């Protein structure tokens, strides 16, 4: 297959890359190839936020959506057709500081400075998405936008102050979204994007099909190909484990997999829908999941990661599965043109092992939208309140006629969701208390006590 260059918008022009390995990260490109060293590397695993950048993507309605992501775990070919904004882009053309920069200076929001570009970019995304004319967002909204950024010296108070102050300062010219949308439109491809570095033979190839049928055809032809969604887990296989992933099949350009709809009593969430959008959609019907949504990793991770990816890899830190199982979610699998559905709890065989055949892939998750006579709660336990790593999260639902008095520390719930189904049936699920949870911080999600018989 012919190789096409990676094309994206960065620093006012369309960049073309032809020679980068397919797993070169955006951060490596920025620092080593483009010499834009304002973006820092801290953890290289999506935890600290020092590498936060803003991506611009063309939306279905033709507008440009902006979102903060972690550059350290995004692979460069996934930028094809998108715009990349880094801390170097924030200042005005005449050198004037952007309100976020001005406010960080005024409020003393920077000390070591290493984490600062990441904070600036998260606040920049908030500013650009809110608009300078809109009311100042609440302090909670500002905190939510900073969940992906760690500061160990200044403390968060002055940074959050800066998040409020930036909306009081004179508005800058900002991003010309109409012009950007025109540029991005010209970069969109009609067919599968296929990339491998030029001048290399048998190098792994990156495929980004545009349609679900093209996706299924590539998967059927290459059953062992590595499927890539938000790269919030797979990215670490490269940056931490130095694994060779082979060929990659990227779902991020498959328009059909972005479906987000309610029909026939079901909420259907396409495999490429981001965690942020998926949870926002789910929480409208299941407000009990709002805290799970807000505590799930961080905003940059939820912006990049997908619900489908979270479900598909069966990782122990994939927080979604217990809650989705509790509300009766089913997964829709596709193999070639054939689709089949199964309950989510039947998908897992063991740690990171799932039931589907190699040639199959996840098409969507479907949760019941009609929830009469049902109460639901979920619990996440972790060593500190903002930790992305959790001990087995749990969830349960009850007939709403029950009166339930329940405390997380004594709960015996679905902690063993990753066990083999036969083992789950045979054995009583171990209680959280017996797993030593008492020694750890237990965070009850709402409601930790349900007493309302309906
Ligand atoms: Fe820490 Fe990317 S370097 S999140
Ligand atoms: Fe860098 Fe806080 S200013 S860690």
Question: How would you describe what is shown here?
Answer:
The protein is of the alpha+beta class. The protein has 4 domains: 6-88 and 178-250, Ubiquitin-like (UB roll); 99-168, DNA polymerase, domain 1, CATH 1.10.150.120; 257-368, Uridine Diphospho-n-acetylenolpyruvylglucosamine Reductase, domain 3; 374-444, no CATH class. 26% of the residues lie in helices and 20% in strands. It has helices at 26-33, 99-106, 116-130, 139-145, 156-165, 177-187, 212-221, 234-239, 275-285, 290-295, 299-304, 307-312, 320-326, 421-426, and strands spanning 6-10, 13-17, 52-58, 64-70, 83-85, 193-195, 206-208, 226-228, 248-250, 260-263, 266-270, 330-335, 338-343, 348-350, 353-354, 361-368, 374-381, 391-399, 442-444. A hairpin with a 2-residue loop joins strand 14 (348-350) and strand 15 (353-354). Helix 2 packs across helix 5. The radius of gyration is 22 Å and the shape is globular. The site of one FE2/S2 (inorganic) cluster has 10 residues, from loops.
Write a brief structural summary.
The protein has 454 residues and is an alpha+beta fold. Helix content is 26%, strand content 20%.
Secondary structure category:
alpha+beta
What is the averaged pLDDT score?
84
Largest sheet: 5 strands, mixed
CATH topology call of the largest domain: Ubiquitin-like (UB roll)
**Which regions contain 5 or more consecutive residues with pLDDT less than 50?**
402-454
Largest beta sheet: strand ordering: 2-1-5-3-4
Net shape:
globular
Instruction: Give the total of beta strands.
Output: 19
**Associated small molecules:** FE2/S2 (inorganic) cluster
What is the CATH top level name of the largest domain? Alpha Beta
Instruction: Provide the helix percentage.
Output: 25-40%
Distance between the termini: 61 Å
- Work out the helix count: 14
Q: Nearest-angstrom radius of gyration?
A: 22 Å
**Quaternary structure type:** single chain
Annotated CATH architecture of the largest domain:
Roll
CATH superfamily of the largest domain: Beta-grasp domain
Strand fraction equals 15-25%
Number of domains: 4
């Amino acid at each position: 297959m012919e190789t096409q260059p990676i094309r994206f918008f960065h620093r006012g022009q369309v960049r073309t890359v032809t020679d980068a390995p397919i797993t070169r990260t955006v951060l490596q490109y920025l620092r080593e190839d483009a010499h834009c060293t304002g973006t820092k590397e801290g953890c290289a695993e999506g935890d600290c936020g020092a590498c936060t950048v803003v991506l611009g993507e063309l939306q279905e309605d033709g507008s440009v959506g902006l979102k903060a992501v972690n550059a350290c775990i995004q692979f460069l070919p996934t930028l094809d057709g998108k715009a990349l904004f880094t801390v170097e882009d924030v200042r005005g053309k005449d050198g004037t500081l952007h309100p976020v920069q001005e406010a960080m200076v005024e409020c003393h929001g920077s000390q070591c400075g290493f984490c600062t570009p990441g904070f600036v970019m998260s606040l920049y995304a908030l500013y650009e998405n809110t608009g300078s004319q809109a009311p100042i967002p609440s302090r909670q909204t500002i905190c939510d936008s900073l969940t992906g950024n760690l500061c160990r010296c200044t403390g968060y108070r002055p940074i959050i102050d800066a998040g409020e102050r930036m909306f009081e300062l004179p508005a800058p010219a900002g991003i010309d979204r109409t012009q950007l949308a025109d540029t991005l439109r010209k970069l969109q491809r009609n067919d599968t994007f296929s990339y491998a570095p030029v001048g290399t033979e048998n190098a792994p190839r990156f495929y980004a099909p545009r349609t679900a049928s093209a996706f299924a055809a590539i998967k059927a032809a290459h059953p062992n190909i590595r499927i890539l969604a938000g790269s919030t887990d797979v990215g670490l296989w490269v940056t931490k484990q130095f694994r060779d992933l082979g060929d990659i099949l990227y779902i991020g350009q498959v328009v059909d997999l972005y479906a987000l709809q309610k029909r026939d009593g079901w909420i259907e969430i396409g495999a490429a829908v981001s965690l942020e959008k998926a949870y926002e959609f789910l929480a409208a019907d299941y407000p009990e999941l709002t805290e799970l949504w807000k505590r799930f990793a961080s905003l940059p991770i939820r912006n990049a990661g997908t619900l489908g990816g979270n479900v598909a890899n069966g990782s122990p830190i994939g927080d979604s599965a217990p809650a989705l199982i509790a509300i009766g979610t089913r997964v829709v699998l596709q193999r070639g043109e054939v689709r089949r559905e199964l309950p989510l709890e039947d998908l897992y065989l063991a740690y990171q092992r799932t039931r589907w055949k190699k040639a199959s892939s996840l098409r969507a998750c479907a949760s019941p939208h009609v929830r009469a006579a049902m109460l639901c709660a979920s619990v996440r336990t972790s060593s500190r309140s903002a930790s992305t790593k959790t001990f087995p999260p749990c969830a349960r639902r009850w007939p709403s006629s029950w009166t339930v008095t329940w405390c997380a520390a004594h709960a015996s719930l679905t902690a063993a969701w990753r066990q083999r189904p036969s083992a789950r049936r045979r054995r009583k699920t171990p209680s959280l208390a017996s797993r030593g949870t008492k020694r750890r911080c237990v965070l009850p999600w709402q409601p930790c006590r349900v007493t309302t018989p309906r």
